[in-house]
Amino acid sequence: MPVNQRHTNGTKCSSHSTFQNTPMKAVKYKYKGDSDFFACLLSYIESHKLFAKKIERIRNQVFLLHLNNGQKLIVKKFADRKKWHFQHKLTSLLKYAGFSATYEFYSSIPPFEYDGCFYGLIEYIKPHPEKFHFFNHENRQEGLRLLSQFHQATKRIAHDSSLEVSTFNQLKKWEERLLVFKSMLPQISRTISEDLLLEWISWASWSLNGMRKFEDLIQKEEIAIIHGDVAHHNFLRRNDRELCLIDFDLAAIAPAVIDYLQYANRILPSINYSMNRLGEYDQLKPLLTNVAFLYGLAFPTDIFREWNRLLRENRMGSHPQFHSVWKMTVESFPERIAFNRTLAWMVHRLTG
């Protein structure tokens, strides 16, 4: 097959093959179990005249390449070529729509395939020493402003025919999460009172029933491409202090309010589950009269998500993460239930 055609379709490197024609120099990396993958990666980039002196794992399936010329590049794994193409196209269209606070894909080099997955090269954003978090008001406000700018851009490109983007249903996602949590109740109740767990399940059911009843109040909101995972680690403060949005693995078509609902759920622990403080943010204040949004705030998505993950990954008992999830479930219970009762009162006032 001609080289250009191979590259257009994504270069293949199986778990038992490398690019035999490219001489390789010694490169520093610590992950011996992945030596075949690194050999494929190095041969691939060297075939494109890029030479690495060091490979650093940032997190699972995301690597930092240190090149000999001083440049740095991110290597990220995508489950298939379609997912790589979507994110490549999305970031390109975002720049075209005026949203520059993210990275660009290294477009001159196509992805390479290894064991059925695709690995793409992405611009490295040099981070500021001060990491982004939700612990102070200024950061939370800045994150919301960036999210609003992102939505303004994605509303303009949401219906672009070149984007193959899936739709997202928050209600369905949370219904599935609740079912999984219920199925694991026998294991979780060995360490936490079943009565307390049933109280969480009761509030979750109340939340979902209300969201289902008033779902039209969510669906009438303007459609955008949402980010879908507005955790603090997906906001990256660049070295010049500009805040950037990264990692679009869960981006999908949905009302923009879904991102704000997820963001509100993320920041609630940092504002002590205070409704008054939630209303201080311009993007969130108007939503506090949306009954479906209020119901959504009561869903204990963080608790269910983390317990489901602990059990799925067999991290119960002495695992360090177990204690933080236990604290989230038990120690925050009084203030979160008080917050939920405030939500119930607000819903009653709005619905009569």
UniProtKB/TrEMBL annotation:
<dbReference type="InterPro" id="IPR047175">
    <property type="entry name" value="CotS-like"/>
</dbReference>
<dbReference type="GO" id="GO:0016740">
    <property type="term" value="F:transferase activity"/>
</dbReference>
<dbReference type="InterPro" id="IPR002575">
    <property type="entry name" value="Aminoglycoside_PTrfase"/>
</dbReference>
<dbReference type="GO" id="GO:0042601">
    <property type="term" value="C:endospore-forming forespore"/>
</dbReference>
<feature type="domain" description="Aminoglycoside phosphotransferase">
    <location>
        <begin position="59"/>
        <end position="264"/>
    </location>
</feature>
<protein>
    <submittedName>
        <fullName>Aminoglycoside phosphotransferase</fullName>
    </submittedName>
</protein>
<keyword id="KW-0808">Transferase</keyword>
<dbReference type="Pfam" id="PF01636">
    <property type="entry name" value="APH"/>
</dbReference>
<dbReference type="InterPro" id="IPR011009">
    <property type="entry name" value="Kinase-like_dom_sf"/>
</dbReference>
